[in-house]
């Protein structure tokens, strides 16, 4: 025991931080979700599932769930598709590859707040760069109120998050592609396999575990998205871009309804845990390459 004491003392600060910054807030969130919370001292009274039921019955809840599902699956699908295409392109040896790879990584290096404000300016209706360019090119009829039209706002914000999020997937996929033995491709070429056949029979099977991991990570990130949408639209117009992360913010910090805000947070935790469970089932019994 005395020999183990120094090691325990070394990890004690990290353990304290873990308890204070993660375990305690999580416990408080779960407690608030099942309780009536009285301000200003946050006194609690257990009420069971009352706030979960009240939250689900709110008129805007179905729209928020739909927006969240569109956001999660849309952002992950298009981020992955674009990242995979770019990774395939950069996996070839050609002049200027390093420069293009560096440029492709730039969106990942930009903070979300900065990216959000930049795209907000680009897509601004009257003075935005996008509409100005369309007018200069004689395509004024294509100019749109990208962030103030309810039918366009969610798609516009999705475009911005795809632009910012694809480099992470690209880097992971490209690293996986570099690790695939070239002998497999050479043997396939000898057998007469074309580029598409090599992609299906060699590249994708070798990247299976990496694909599962990065897609699940992006799904978890998408469930918890907040900053980019908050900066660009604030959940508007008329709730057209409001997802669960912004709904939690509105309930807690605008309406001061900490019980319902915590209830939605617990639901969100459940969605994330379900995502991780699916990931574990998909990779169970397989060695991660």
Automatic annotation (TrEMBL):
<keyword id="KW-0812">Transmembrane</keyword>
<keyword id="KW-1003">Cell membrane</keyword>
<feature type="transmembrane region" description="Helical">
    <location>
        <begin position="152"/>
        <end position="175"/>
    </location>
</feature>
<keyword id="KW-1133">Transmembrane helix</keyword>
<feature type="transmembrane region" description="Helical">
    <location>
        <begin position="263"/>
        <end position="282"/>
    </location>
</feature>
<dbReference type="InterPro" id="IPR000515">
    <property type="entry name" value="MetI-like"/>
</dbReference>
<feature type="transmembrane region" description="Helical">
    <location>
        <begin position="102"/>
        <end position="122"/>
    </location>
</feature>
<keyword id="KW-0813">Transport</keyword>
<dbReference type="GO" id="GO:0005886">
    <property type="term" value="C:plasma membrane"/>
</dbReference>
<dbReference type="GO" id="GO:0055085">
    <property type="term" value="P:transmembrane transport"/>
</dbReference>
<feature type="transmembrane region" description="Helical">
    <location>
        <begin position="207"/>
        <end position="226"/>
    </location>
</feature>
<feature type="transmembrane region" description="Helical">
    <location>
        <begin position="7"/>
        <end position="27"/>
    </location>
</feature>
<feature type="domain" description="ABC transmembrane type-1">
    <location>
        <begin position="65"/>
        <end position="279"/>
    </location>
</feature>
<dbReference type="Pfam" id="PF00528">
    <property type="entry name" value="BPD_transp_1"/>
</dbReference>
<dbReference type="InterPro" id="IPR035906">
    <property type="entry name" value="MetI-like_sf"/>
</dbReference>
<keyword id="KW-0472">Membrane</keyword>
<comment type="similarity">
    <text>Belongs to the binding-protein-dependent transport system permease family.</text>
</comment>
<feature type="transmembrane region" description="Helical">
    <location>
        <begin position="69"/>
        <end position="90"/>
    </location>
</feature>
<protein>
    <submittedName>
        <fullName>Sugar ABC transporter permease</fullName>
    </submittedName>
</protein>
